[in-house]
Amino acid sequence: MTRPVIICHMISSVDGRIVTGRWTPPVDGTGRDALVNQYFDIEKNYDADGWIIGRTTASEHFVKTAEPRKGSTGGLPREPYVAHPSAERLAIIMDHHGRLQYERSDIEGDHIVAVLGETVADEYLQSLQDRGISYCFAGSDGHDIRKAVDVLGRVFGCRKVLLEGGGRINGAFLKAGIIDEISLLIYPGIDGLSGVASSFDWPGARNEQPASGQALRLKHVEKRQDDVIWLQCRVERSGS
Prior knowledge:
With about 240 residues, this protein is α/β, with parallel strands linked by helices.
């Protein structure tokens, strides 16, 4: 199996910011959440095999975080571990240093797959196995996204995955050139403050262009309820 199709599915204000609590309210007094929930409605229609977020997003919404565990690294093999081969949908979390502390093996029924760096301690890997949590590796430092995505297809059988991270993770996937489609809902409101997280936040040098060699072709545009706009764009790469 080839690597899965990666669809970056996000909702942002008109200025590209993604902290929903900061957005100006809808013009007619409708609750902000009613508009944001359209994001989840579209998510369900994609029929994806899983979704990807980073450690920061995971710790803000789902699990606890702590300092990386210290310990040996030579006992357990640095190979993918599949705890639940029959899992229908995956919650894939990029956690380079193994800082997340899980209390269960799923998030709202979706089986957790931790994507780690190979330098995490054996004790941390054993703790994941003990809790029935799957894991795989993204190179020695956890930043080899292409390797991790290939494993998601080859070992975990993923054919389509939604990338729903914060700007750092989305930016890393953009830099790696493995986003195939962008699904963006534009909320009819503004944040306006410099430095607030946006859909893509690659922390590179000022002269870097993480989207270099990539262009967007509009597939679909739709005005939805309460003035929410939905854009679907295919990512086309130079030479492809």
